[in-house]
Write a structure and sequence with these properties.
Layout lengths: L1 H52 L14 H24 L5 H19 L5 H25 L1 H26 L17
Length: 189
């Protein structure tokens, strides 16, 4: 019985030591999360400033007749989640190729709104499909190491998948890939 009391007392003593050190560790974790989530937002701001000097205006995906600001807000939230997923990887003390995959995905997602106006519907559908497939592979890799990071990437998969599907569907019904109706005789008057 004396041994059981010692083990319990030792556990309580260790728990109290951990509780004393936790606030500074929590502050560091919160600061790291903030920096990782804010960094992609700062980078897209810098890219926007540089693109504005060349007259490039970003075009964000806003489906179903939503206002343009909602697409921009959704894109920025997704960029913050990408940065937070990077934080989840660093929290696991992982340093390897998966971080490179995630950084490439962040860079592609930053550049995507700026190249969108120059693409036609088929090209945009193909680019969005490529981003979606790359994002799917990245989510699988990140999720294997840091499940929280994989879940943070899920909203981006929904948006890129929807934009790829809509882009390819629009390209299927637009010339030169759509069926041409001009070969039919005009209706009788």
């Amino acid at each position: 019985m004396g041994v059981a009391k010692m083990a319990t007392a030792a556990t309580l003593h260790l728990a109290s030591l951990g509780a004393r050190r936790a606030p500074s560790a929590n502050r560091r974790e919160a600061l790291a999360l903030f920096v990782c989530a804010a960094l992609p937002l700062g980078l897209i701001g810098l890219v926007d400033l540089a693109a504005e000097t060349f007259g490039l205006v970003p075009l964000f995906f806003t489906p179903f007749g939503l206002p343009a600001w909602s697409g921009a807000a959704a894109h920025l939230v997704q960029l913050a989640l990408l940065g937070a997923a990077y934080w989840a990887l660093t929290r696991q003390r992982y340093h390897g190729r998966v971080q490179v995959w995630l950084l490439i995905l962040i860079a592609a997602y930053i550049v995507l709104p700026f190249i969108t106006p120059a693409l036609d519907s088929l090209q945009l559908g193909l680019v969005c499909t490529a981003v979606f497939v790359f994002a799917l592979a990245t989510v699988a890799r990140v999720g294997a190491i840091a499940p929280l990071g994989g879940w943070m990437l899920a909203p981006m998969l929904v948006m890129t998948g929807l934009s790829a599907a809509m882009g390819l569907a629009m390209a299927a019904y637009a010339p030169p890939f759509a069926l041409m109706q001009s070969q039919q005789p005009p209706p009788a008057a």
